[in-house]
Specification:
4% helix, two-stranded antiparallel sheet, mainly beta, globular, Porin, 317 residues, 14-stranded antiparallel beta barrel
């Protein structure tokens, strides 16, 4: 399995093709796997909360802002330890507003030195379009009259639909690999009687490895994330160096898009803070110097099955 994960990383590195952005984009994906894979909930055997905020292409009007929050926990069902979670997303790009909320569940089974998880996320997706604020007359090559296009909403519209995500995840103390698919049911959001928006499914493939150096305080952690809607794809290849399980720094390369600088700290009491800075390598660089992303995670322990102890004072025995 170690060879499979390493081969996966090398294979994804070798892929080069055009892509477009779809679903929410995060540079610190390696700290928030449950955001795109429901099978990753309950992995740390602790209750984990994560808040992630991204400001896309700073300085470009309406470029986009994304906020994601999740909480997940291991849970015992009978004698088996599984995972449950909640994932909430608010994504604003241009005139589009994309919000979603999913309850997540993962069935877990110990296999050799690792854990195999099969997960599902059930919830709703809400998509809106601020038609009242949009500019309907623009010139793209030859003139086109957007104002009289009946397909483009002229008012603020919004619709909600049921949504389903599925995934599989295998992890050990040394490496992990995950496969997931969002919008399995291809939800269609209706905007009145004449307009609608259809969510297309996205396939996610991720993997990571912990390489302990001779000085065991230093650990190199390569990882990768590929996502595709089978029309285009996006690939992130990352490497981080972690010191003493507390500080980390590293870089990512998003194919044909950006170089990403990563840094963070595991503070005391289960609190972790991370930051990433995306430097565009495409023509976007002419209008925006960077994208900024912040991540805050807090883990705390709950001892499942622990019974409360009662004590009596010896003075009243």
């Amino acid at each position: 399995m170690k060879k499979v994960v390493l081969s996966l990383i090398l294979t994804l590195v070798s892929i080069g093709t055009a892509f477009s952005q779809f679903d929410a984009q995060f540079s610190q994906y390696m700290f928030h796997n449950s955001a795109f894979n429901p099978a990753a909930v309950g992995e740390d055997e602790m209750i984990q909360t994560t808040l992630q905020f991204r400001n896309q292409w700073i300085g470009m009007p309406n470029a986009g802002q994304t906020t994601a929050f999740s909480i997940n926990s291991p849970i015992k069902i009978g004698s088996a330890l599984n995972g449950v979670g909640l994932n909430v997303l608010n994504d604003v790009v241009g005139q589009f507003i994309n919000r979603s909320g999913h309850l997540q569940y993962a069935f877990k089974k110990q296999i050799k030195s690792g854990t195999l998880s099969l997960g599902v996320g059930l919830g709703v997706v809400t998509v809106g379009f601020n038609g009242a604020d949009s500019v309907h007359k623009v010139t793209i090559g030859t003139y086109y009259d957007f104002e009289n296009d009946q397909v483009i909403p002229k008012t603020n519209v919004q619709g909600t639909s049921f949504d389903m995500n599925v995934g599989a995840y295998y992890s050990t103390p040394t490496y992990y690999a995950g496969l997931s698919y969002s919008h399995l049911n291809s939800p269609t959001v209706l905007w009145g009687e004449t307009s609608k928006f259809k969510e297309t499914g996205t396939l996610y493939l991720t993997g990571g490895y912990n390489w302990v150096l001779p000085d065991s305080k230093y650990v190199v952690k390569p990882s990768t994330l590929l996502k595709t809607d089978f029309t285009s794809l996006q690939l992130d290849v990352s490497t981080r160096l972690e010191y003493d399980n507390k500080y980390w720094g590293g870089m990512s390369y998003r194919i044909q898009d950006a170089v990403v600088f990563l840094a963070g700290i595991n503070a005391a009491g289960g609190l972790s803070v991370g930051v990433s800075w995306d430097l565009p390598t495409s023509q976007i660089l002419t209008v925006s110097q960077a994208s900024l992303e912040l991540l805050v995670s807090y883990n705390f322990e709950y001892v499942f099955g622990q019974k409360k102890s009662k004590f009596k004072s010896i003075r009243i025995l």
